[in-house]
Design goal:
It contains 25 helices and 16 strands. By secondary structure, it is of the alpha+beta class. Strand 7 and strand 8 form a beta hairpin. The chain starts with a helix and ends in a 10-residue tail after the last helix.
């Protein structure tokens, strides 16, 4: 949903960043800013700062930064519209109703009704687990060593043995037969009429990332079939694009997400403190689910069953993770079958140790591949090495491929040069790896001091942001066009315009960038560390040097682009005059002068 800039700014202005962040992070005032431990990376010394005057946050440790929208998006893993909605509700700002066509309105109203009936069904199942009829379900969960707190957290419930209990209850609440059927909660046939989808089962409500119930999973009590039953696909439940437990895992603040196979594995891990665990929903892991995970992590640990089926599922999942550029590792659960059994028998400390020593997914693939070959037979061993070479060709980046060749050669005693030649030979035959592009000249390119050029531009923006009155003293010498990085130029233009118009507010500039990485980079511009200088004279000299350096860089930049470019010529002429004047001008940074 698109919201007008004025409305976005109203929500931001009414959401004081200190108040919002203090609800998530313990921060203490030091000087004009607040500091605390960064929620986006592990640290022992506070490097996370929140500025009330700038209405921005910035971590000098990991570089995370932005305004109140950026923080909510990163912490809650929300999209920009989701962050606006949350903060608008918090600030009491009414967002406009979305203008839909009649057809879309009808569809959205139907979706809302399906979510309502699911929520009501979840409440009913939750109540039944605590009734006399649900005693068998409660005993099952207790025997699986789940605490009451965990049962409540996941909203676990029970479907009675009577086959139309839920249907009759929902109809008393005003829900129609067709809505109950469309939600996947009941079926109709001529023999039995309307009857519940789930009966005599422990119920696992399935929630989307916003904690809305979208479907259910049920584990039968006794020997009935199927052992596990899931809701069918509905307008609100797409199995391939949701993951069980992700509503909790997405805010776990861990460096990874653990992917496993079953509901009980997820719940057992969360109870043991591994609240980054999720599971696919009764289907094989899909690219849609992999893309969903990519929103929240860069590394996925696979905790699939240690049997043959689990190994095959892990191999499939590794391939899917690679397709979306996610790093994968495999947790060794032996001698137990699944995470639930492992934790019950060896405890959470042992499970954490297995996490810490999770196997590289490529090494796992090669280890499983080795099972198909007789390593005592030279011919079979050679075939194995060829298969390794084939897999190594899958790394398109030369550095990564070379690192894996080195590691595999050492692990399987092949010899680095031998394996490298085998990879090169296989690549040449199949065209799997593009030849490495090398410079035409053997002369190494000299280092260009680009970092210093960027640094002085960042320092100038930060200094002006901290002391906005300085802008009016230097505006005759500097313009947005003097910033040679595209993003820096945009930020400077917006900053200088706001200072001219008297509505200076750097946090609003962050909101103008849709891309999260651009927001982060823009935030860094306002938070570059300025050197602590003792005397006013030293500060004035430092400021003058920075201003002069930015103007000199600009002059050099446009000088190299002379020719038919009239704009560049004008910039050079203007820059030369400004440099000459700056060289003999004293700029006071005393705001009273």
């Amino acid at each position: 949903m698109y919201y007008p800039d004025e409305l976005v700014e109203e929500v931001r202005a009414k959401s004081d960043i200190v108040d919002v962040i203090s609800g998530y992070v313990r921060i203490q005032k030091k000087g004009s800013s607040y500091f605390g431990l960064c929620p986006f990376h592990n640290e022992k010394s506070p490097s996370f700062s929140v500025s009330p005057s700038k209405q921005m946050y910035y971590c000098f440790g990991c570089g995370a930064g932005g305004n109140v929208f950026t923080f909510v998006m990163n912490y809650e893993n929300f999209t920009f519209p989701e962050a606006i909605k949350m903060l608008a509700e918090r600030a009491g700002v009414n967002l406009p109703e979305i203008e839909y066509s009649d057809e879309i309105k009808k569809k959205e109203n139907r979706r809302a009704r399906l979510l309502e009936v699911n929520k009501e069904a979840a409440k009913y199942f939750f109540y039944q687990l605590r009734s006399e009829k649900g005693a068998i379900g409660y005993r099952y969960l207790s025997n699986r060593q789940l605490s009451d707190e965990t049962i409540k957290q996941f909203g676990l419930g029970f479907a009675n043995k009577t086959s139309d209990d839920l249907t009759r209850y929902l109809k008393t609440k005003g829900y129609t037969d067709d809505l109950i059927q469309e939600a996947g909660l009941a079926s109709f046939d001529e023999r039995f009429g309307m009857h519940d989808k789930f009966w005599n089962r422990v119920i696992f409500p399935i929630q989307d990332i916003n904690h809305r119930v979208i479907g259910f999973g049920g584990r039968v009590m006794g020997d009935g079939e199927p052992k596990y039953l899931n809701s069918p696909e509905t307008p609100v439940f797409d199995k391939s694009r949701n993951l069980y437990g992700l509503n909790f895992a997405r805010t776990a603040r861990k460096n990874n997400i653990i992917l496993c196979e079953g509901y009980m594995d997820v719940i057992a891990m969360h109870q043991a403190g591994f609240n980054q665990a999720v599971a696919s929903l009764g289907t094989a892991f899909t690219p849609g689910q992999a893309n969903l995970l990519r929103r929240y992590t860069e590394e996925v640990l696979l905790a699939y069953d240690s049997d043959g089926a689990g190994t095959k599922a892990a191999l499939r999942a590794i391939a899917i993770l690679k397709e979306v550029d996610l790093s994968g590792k495999v947790i060794n659960l032996e001698p137990y079958k699944d995470p639930d059994e492992f934790i019950k028998n060896l405890g959470k400390e042992a499970f954490q140790e297995r996490i810490d020593h999770a196997e590289n997914s490529f090494f796992f693939e090669i280890r499983i591949l080795e099972r198909d070959y007789n390593m005592n037979d030279p011919e079979s061993k050679t075939k194995f090495h060829r298969e390794i070479a084939k897999k190594l060709c899958g790394f398109s980046e030369e550095v990564e491929r070379e690192n894996y060749i080195s590691a595999i050669a050492e692990k399987y005693h092949i010899g680095f040069d031998n394996l490298r030649k085998l990879v090169a030979s296989y690549a040449a035959q199949t065209g799997l790896v593009k030849p490495v592009e090398r410079p035409k000249s053997g002369i190494q390119k000299k280092n260009v001091p680009e970092d210093n050029i960027k640094r002085v531009q960042r320092l100038l923006i930060t200094w002006i942001t901290d002391e906005p009155k300085l802008y009016h003293k230097i505006k005759k010498y500097i313009s947005a066009g003097d910033f040679t990085e595209d993003l820096y130029k945009v930020v400077a233009d917006k900053l200088f315009t706001s200072l001219e118009e008297g509505n200076y507010n750097p946090a609003s500039i962050i909101s103008s960038f849709a891309d999260e990485e651009e927001q982060r980079e823009a935030a860094a511009l306002f938070n570059t560390k300025l050197e602590a200088l003792e005397t006013e004279q030293d500060r004035e000299k430092a400021f003058h040097d920075i201003l002069y350096a930015v103007k000199k860089n600009s002059f050099d930049y446009y000088s190299t682009r002379l020719g038919t470019d009239v704009e560049a010529l004008n910039k050079v002429i203007e820059g030369k005059k400004a440099l000459e004047e700056l060289g003999k001008t004293h700029i006071s940074i005393d705001e009273s002068q």
